[in-house]
Amino acid sequence: MSDAVDAGHKTIVRLVRYAASHSAVFMEPVEGRVTLSSGGDRPPRHFPQGALDQACASGLVVCDGNRVRATSEAQAFLRRALLAPDEAFQEQHRDTENRTVSVDGIRQTVRVNPLESPLGAIARLKEKSGQAFLAPEALAAGERLHADFTRAQLQPRLTMAYEPRLASKTKGGAGGTADLCDTALAARMRVGRAMEAIGPELCGVALDVCCFQKGLELVERERQWPVRSAKLMLRAALMALARHYAPPRPAGRQSHVWGAEGYRPDGSGLVTGVRPDSGPPLP
User: Fold this and answer.
1) What is the pTM (predicted TM-score) of this model?
2) In the chain, what's the furthest Cα-to-Cα distance?
3) Cβ distance 75 to 20 under 8 Å?
4) Residues 17, 109: Cα–Cα separation, whole Å
5) 263 within domain boundaries
6) Pairing mode, if any, of strands 106-112 and 97-103?
7) Cα radius of gyration (the chain)
8) How far is 175 from 208, CA to CA, in rounded Å?
9) Quick check: is 277 in a domain?
10) What pLDDT shows up at residue 257?
11) pLDDT tens across 234-249, in order?
């Protein structure tokens, strides 16, 4: 891209950004240039008339009398323009958000793409009433299962292992779980307990979707289930898993005893200065 074309593109980006960041933008042509103002305290911005014409021809802004407004395509255009060329198309279709995670005991803010989550697409499903198909606790349980499955190193190996064979390993050696660290072993135990809590009828769909990241349609084909039945089975499995991770408190159990105003414990049965097996009373 030449310098002149690049400068013209940047001018269009500034114009579209100005139009998209204000609810009302007024236009005033002045000798081959156009002045845009938002009607507030901010100073007006001046752009070449050609930049406005090109933005209108590209469908990024619309001129209605003396008003200029950004179209629905303006946001995607700005997201592409403000990124590197090799990441522009990918970032246009991402839905990134900032989250706080703990790395080695230090809390850090990172950018994540919820659509890359194994449950990202299912989390966007809605009921007819408009409520989310998956409850927040069910979604969190699925994410936790996926994290434990990853820590347990249970994913199938898709590439050849190039690391050299250790000299201490001999044919018939221990291998397997003997080569896993304590973190991986603990994660495997958690995955095993989670599968027992879900039950043999539902644990398979939870593993397929949350751990092996299979789509619902693929699960239905492989298991020969009716159409749109996998999401119902998955929801039942994740709700059972959520109860396993956060068991409900038993009904009727109280952790505190509350008394009325002025309540005092009855100490008539206590003898001052006497302890069990401590001899005669103190003088």
Assistant:
1) 0.48
2) 110
3) yes
4) 27
5) no
6) antiparallel
7) 32
8) 26
9) no
10) 58
11) 999 999 999 999 888 7
